[in-house]
Amino acid sequence: MKNQQRLIVGLVLALVLIVFALLNRQPVAVNFFGATFSWPLIIIIVVAVIIGAVIALLVATSSRVATKKQLAALTADNQRLTAERDKMIAAATAKAEAKVKALEQQLAQTQASAKP
Length: 116
Fold this sequence. Notes:
Elements lengths: L1 H22 L3 E6 L2 E6 H74 L2
Antiparallel strand pairs: 1-2
InterPro entries: LapA_dom
Organism: Lacticaseibacillus nasuensis JCM 17158
Keywords: Cell membrane, Coiled coil, Membrane, Transmembrane, Transmembrane helix
């Protein structure tokens, strides 16, 4: 559903851009690093949109790479902490079982000495 909405919005924006560009076909003087060009406005608009799309793609890609690195680091931390927790649980369980066994032996001795 979300992808369909994005597709529809993208198509509407593309249609608006195309209509706008077709209505603005007159030549425009462009100064670029000291050189002057006279191009139709439609070409200027299309080039500006492409440059903007490339910039947005580069920003999104760098953000995604940083997020992947952070996810990898957090996953490693999670695995380390899970292993540490499991070791601590095993140690506490072994200690509790030893204590229970000692108390059972103590109870058996008490019961044996209490019998006439």
